[in-house]
Known about the structure:
By secondary structure, this protein is mainly α. Helix content is about 60%, strand content about 0%. Helix 1 packs across helix 3 (about 40-50) and helix 2 (about 30-35) packs across helix 3 (about 40-50).
Amino acid sequence: MANIKDCPGFETFGADVKEARKVKQLSRKTLAEQVNIDWRYLANIENKGQHPSVQVFLELMSLLASG
């Protein structure tokens, strides 16, 4: 498993997801449903720095990066 030191710039991923979700005025539950994950998994990504799977990462980026 990759160590956070091996992924520079990824340290703030969870906080970035949380901020983007709030800018889009999405609840954690709503975003989790759109990505088809449990809201607690999303909470762990946002608050505890849990690394998402590649698929979840791509789906989050797709939903949150779009204008």
